[in-house]
Amino acid sequence: MCYCMIKSINSVAVVVKDGKKAKKWYQDKLGFVVKSDEDHWITMALPKGNGFQLHLCETKPLEKGNTGILFYVDNLDKTYAELSKRDVKFSQKPIDQGWGKYAMMKDLDGNVFWLMEG
Questions:
Q1: Interval 61-93: pLDDT, tens
Q2: Looking at the predicted structure, is the pLDDT value of residue 14 above 80?
Q3: Which of 13, 8, 1, 38 is nearest to 116 (CA)?
Q4: Given 36, 69, 103, 115, which is the most exposed site by the fewest CB atoms within 10 A?
Q5: What is the CATH number for 65?
Q6: Which residues, other chains included, contact 5 with Cβ-Cβ below 8 Å and sequence gap of 6+?
């Protein structure tokens, strides 16, 4: 039996030109609520949602292959070890940046997904 690694999708990045304008649009037009608003990190969710968030990412288009999709896992190191044994390729091994520990894996076609404990 394998270790169950991915437990949920936490957020998806949406590339926007202006984070403040996009935040207002999602609030006023769609009824989203602000979950966090710190410089580059603006997240929005539905008021009665299931925890899923949109990350309004004010930037040039994401680097090639980065889907902006974040999967939550219970234990990042165990998940990394298990997926590595299965020959899953990583563009970023587990790293702690102070704001959180994450890794980035690639699928068969080079699409990049984020893994983070949560």
A1: 766 778 888 889 999 999 999 999 989 999 999
A2: yes
A3: 8
A4: 36
A5: 3.10.180.10
A6: 73, 74, 78, 79, 82, 83
Does the residue 10 lie in any domain? Answer: yes
Q: Return d(Cα 98, Cα 23) in angstroms, integer.
A: 25
CB 118 within 8 A of CB 10: yes
The pLDDT value recorded for residue 62 is 67
Amino acid type, 11? S
Owner of token pair 């899923």:
52
Instruction: Give residues with Cβ within 8 angstroms of 97, minimum separation 6.
Output: none
Owning domain of residue 92: 6-117
Cβ pair 104, 113 in contact under 8 A: yes
The pTM of the whole model exceeds 0.85:
no
Average pLDDT, the chain: 87
Q: Which amino acid is at 105?
A: M
Cβ pair 37, 23 in contact under 8 A: yes
